[in-house]
Specification:
Pfam families: Phage_capsid (PF05065)
CATH topology of one domain: hypothetical protein PF0899 fold
Helix content: 25-40%
Main location: virion
Subcellular location: Virion
Oligomer: single chain
Order of helices and strands: HHHHHEEEEHHEHHEHEEEEHEEE
Distance between the termini: 173 Å
InterPro entries: Phage_capsid (IPR024455), Phage_capsid-like_C (IPR054612)
Number of strands: 13
Strand order of the largest sheet: 5-13-10-6-9-8-7
Number of helices: 11
Protein name: Phage major capsid protein, HK97 family
Largest sheet: 7 strands, mixed
Length: about 375
């Protein structure tokens, strides 16, 4: 039988339990970490500041962070437009270099078309206007007055009756065709149809206004200044050099019968207005002219409004003699405009379809003619 020997190891009371020793070491380490973190003066804030600084683009030639400034410039452009970019950002976001931002930018186009000025004589604002339902109209007019006589109590009474005439006014057609590519209408960022319609209306207005002033009546209205009508007007002749212009204007004003003069308007172009204005400023009769005090209100000469008509001749020494640069009259009594068909605009998608063309067709039927020559007086520029 084998004898087992047991070795007993004893500990003194002063020995420390290993578990307790580990716990004590861990507590000490935790305290040490807390102390060091407190000594680092808010390390989280410092790390945030360092990160922001690292993302900030460097200036000058030493900029190694071009991707960041390009991103910032592109972001600014997309949010606020090109006007918000500073010089460095504009240089970085080079629209001429696609990789530097050109793909993200596009030119800007205005949807407003700059139009040339269209001037026309405002005959419709001073003449008489009526609508008709046929191709022509006959307007009766008195040719001669009736004439009574003084009689005695039992004497014979004279017999008299007026005579009449009539004025025939035809309606003439004014038309145009505007061919436009179908694809241009579809792809244009401008409303081409509305633009063309507005242009047609203005050009038709100009054409008819010119005809009302100088038209010869051949396929168009007969203007009040056509050469065939001049002999029927009351005329005052002024020196072509303009030496007696003011006096002749006063004479012209009082050559018109009072009933017409009370409703009369002056008609002249802008250059003639300037000549008259300058002549009045250098004389004692400057108060005859009164400038307009509000937009849309015409200037007046001797108390009557001035209609600016660019289709009338200039009054200037360089202009040939035998011209009629100024008219004064009651145009509502003297000139008649007749409207048969207003401006009609039609889109034709078919007749030009084989070639991809859309035709904008427009037409207008209108007429005009002098009906009473005694209601208008003319100033003639010539050697008296």
């Amino acid at each position: 039988m084998t004898n087992l020997a047991f070795k007993l190891e004893t500990k003194s009371a002063s020995d420390v339990d290993p578990i307790e020793e580990v716990k004590s070491a861990l507590d000490g380490l935790a305290n040490d970490v807390k102390t060091k973190l407190a000594a680092n003066d808010n390390i989280a804030d410092r790390l945030a500041k360092l990160e922001a600084k690292a993302n900030r683009p460097a200036g000058g030639a030493a900029n190694d962070n071009n991707e960041n400034i390009e991103a910032k410039a592109l972001n600014t452009f997309l949010r606020s437009g090109a006007a918000a970019l500073d010089a460095d950002e504009r240089k970085t976001l080079n629209i001429g270099t696609p990789s530097a931002g050109g793909y993200a930018t596009a030119p800007e186009y205005s949807t407003t078309i700059v139009e040339k000025l269209t001037q026309f004589s405002p005959m419709r604002s001073v003449a008489a206007v009526m609508s008709i339902g046929t191709s022509k109209v006959y307007i009766p007019k008195e040719a001669t007055h009736l004439a009574g006589g003084w009689v005695t109590e039992t004497g014979a009474r004279p017999s008299s009756e007026p005579t009449f005439d009539q004025v025939e006014i035809n309606a003439y057609e004014h038309a145009v065709i505007v061919p436009v590519s179908l694809q241009l209408i579809e792809d244009s960022f401008v409303d081409l149809q509305a633009y063309i319609a507005g242009m047609i209306a203005k050009q038709f207005g100009k054409a008819e206004a010119t005809a009302f002033v100088t038209g010869d009546g051949n396929g168009k209205p007969l203007g009040f200044l056509d050469s065939t009508l001049l002999a029927g007007y009351q005329t005052v002749t002024a020196a072509q050099a303009g030496t007696n212009l003011v006096e002749k204007l006063i004479e012209l004003h009082y050559s018109l019968p009072t009933a017409y003069a009370q409703n009369a308007s002056w008609a002249m172009n802008r250059k003639t207005m300037g000549v008259i204005r300058a002549a009045l400023d250098t004389s004692s009769k400057g108060t005859l002219w009164s400038d307009s005090l509000a937009n849309g209100t015409p200037a007046t000469l001797m108390g009557r409004p001035i209609a600016e008509m660019p289709d009338m001749a200039d009054f200037a020494p360089a202009v040939a003699a035998d011209t009629y640069p100024v008219a004064f009259g009651d145009f509502s009594s003297g000139y008649q405009i007749v409207d048969r068909v207003g401006v009609q605009i039609m889109r034709d998608d078919y007749t030009g379809a084989d070639n991809g063309i859309v035709k904008i067709r427009a037409r207008r039927r209108v007429g005009g003619k002098l009906v009473n020559a005694e209601a208008i007086a003319l100033l003639k520029s010539d050697t008296p």
